[in-house]
Design a protein that fits this description.
heterodimer; A: alpha+beta; five-stranded antiparallel beta sheet; globular; B: alpha+beta; four-stranded antiparallel beta sheet; 5 helices
């Protein structure tokens, strides 16, 4: 199943620090303020926190809703949060997307030259995540 | 071994494209002697930089801390790709004593509750294999080389948001007269205990 529309993906580490961000915009943005989506995604972190300590699964499904957009979340064992802002509902695809990116993140973690909880700047990582996004959603 | 990862143009495969080692990859295990050799170098490295036992143990613990931070996600994934997270305290301690210990050392440890101090637990194991080949001189008699493991535990706990003060002690072993068993004492912070009480 394919998804279209705005997609914003963020990886958040300890102390709400953003580690990676990817934006995909296949349609023109309808909202007036371009920063609104980012603001909304970060404000949904509270909802993710709450949900994370209630459910023991990693995939938390939709944790927050705003206008016509939803935020789905995935929290790892080490409390790294993966957030996806999307307009269409698609549980299985999103879960698989999160799991694939998480495996990529595990490989980054195993690299001793990567400082834990720092921004992931590798262009290859970015390229691989874009591939996963393209393969799963478009 | 390395040639498996080089293609015709001799360009090494990026780490992100290599498969993650899974449970079935028996060839990926490291022998005890290889690890002990590396560990002895780590100890010698720190020995050159300090002669205080407390600081020595702190340095070993810091080395282990970074490992623990990274390992929690990987060990959970390795156990089961669709695994759940640990959100309950005692369940998490058992995860450490069983899954983490078996992954690292090939054996399990045991979890005990401290009778006197509230919110305090101990992970004990009869024989710490990483210090198996270490014998200390009289000056370092009180040094516990398992401090590395204590630091590793602290890293695991911090990453999973179960903040605690972790210390490593030795106690006389129950089974072997000459060796000591390692006791890792974990005192959880107030906020963690509160959160755990709210979840009950």
């Amino acid at each position: 199943e394919k998804m279209s529309g705005e997609l914003l993906f963020v990886i958040v580490g300890k102390n709400d620090k953003p580690l990676y961000e990817l934006e995909h915009n296949s349609e023109h943005r309808e909202m007036d303020d371009p920063n609104l989506v980012h603001f909304f995604l970060h404000s949904s972190l509270d909802a993710v926190e709450e949900c994370a300590w209630k459910k023991d699964t990693m995939y938390l499904k939709v944790v927050d809703v705003f206008q016509n957009m939803k935020v789905s979340a995935f929290v790892s064992a080490g409390n790294v949060k993966y957030l996806l802002l999307h307009s269409q509902k698609n549980d299985d695809t999103i879960k698989n997307f999160f799991q694939e990116v998480h495996e990529l993140y595990l490989k980054v973690l195993l690299n001793p030259f990567y400082e834990h909880n720092s921004k992931i700047e590798s262009p290859i990582f970015d390229d691989r995540v874009r591939n996963i996004l393209r393969r799963r959603f478009l | 071994m390395l040639s498996n990862f080089l293609d015709r143009d001799s360009e090494p495969v990026n780490i992100l494209d290599r498969p993650l080692p899974s449970k079935r990859d028996q060839k990926r295990e490291v022998s005890l002697s290889s690890f002990c050799y590396l560990y002895s170098e780590i100890i010698q490295y720190h020995q050159k930089r300090t002669n205080q036992i407390k600081e020595f143990e702190r340095r070993l613990a810091d080395t282990g801390y970074d490992v623990g931070l990274r390992m929690i996600d990987y060990i959970t994934w390795r156990k089961d790709r669709n695994s759940k997270r640990e959100i309950r305290l005692e369940s998490f301690l058992h995860f450490i004593a069983n899954n983490v210990w078996r992954y690292l050392f090939g054996q399990s440890a045991s979890v005990e509750i401290h009778v006197d101090i509230k919110g305090c637990y101990m992970i004990t194991e009869e024989e710490t294999i990483i210090s198996k080949f270490i014998s200390t001189t009289r000056e370092y008699r009180n040094l516990n080389c398992a401090a590395f493991v204590g630091g590793l535990i602290e890293g695991l706990l911090d990453a999973a948001e179960f903040e605690a003060v972790v210390s490593t002690r030795s106690a006389p072993s129950n089974i072997a007269r000459s060796s000591n068993k390692t006791v890792i004492v974990i005192e959880f912070s107030e906020s963690v205990l509160e959160r755990e009480a709210n979840l009950k």
